[in-house]
Design goal:
mainly alpha, 4 helices, about 100 residues, globular
Length: about 100
């Protein structure tokens, strides 16, 4: 007995499952953004560490931690890691602007 419409429903579910799987990973364009952000953080870190007075401040430690989070997010490409990076950025922003 063949039920009409069943194959298309199954096909729709498979497409939806594939779309969900694809959405759990970060697109390659975002990797380029991570690279740019990483380079900018490294630049600020270099300038801060060149000055003896700011070489071991909490701000430098925060930048180092943020840079490491960007590197992890870039190499991972998982959406959950990108979300963790976003939360870290929001925490830093709240700490220094709040």
């Amino acid at each position: 007995m063949h039920v009409t419409g069943r194959p298309s429903l199954l096909n729709h579910r498979c497409k939806a499952s594939r779309a969900f799987v694809l959405q759990t990973y970060i697109p390659d364009e975002v990797t380029q953004i991570y690279d740019k952000i990483g380079h900018e953080i490294e630049s600020h870190l270099s300038m801060a560490m060149a000055q003896a007075a700011t070489a071991s401040t909490p701000q430098v430690a925060t930048l180092q931690s943020l840079l490491e989070a960007v590197r992890v997010a870039r190499s991972s490409k998982e959406l959950s890691v990108a979300n963790a990076l976003l939360q870290k950025v929001r925490g830093v922003q709240a700490r220094y602007t709040g």
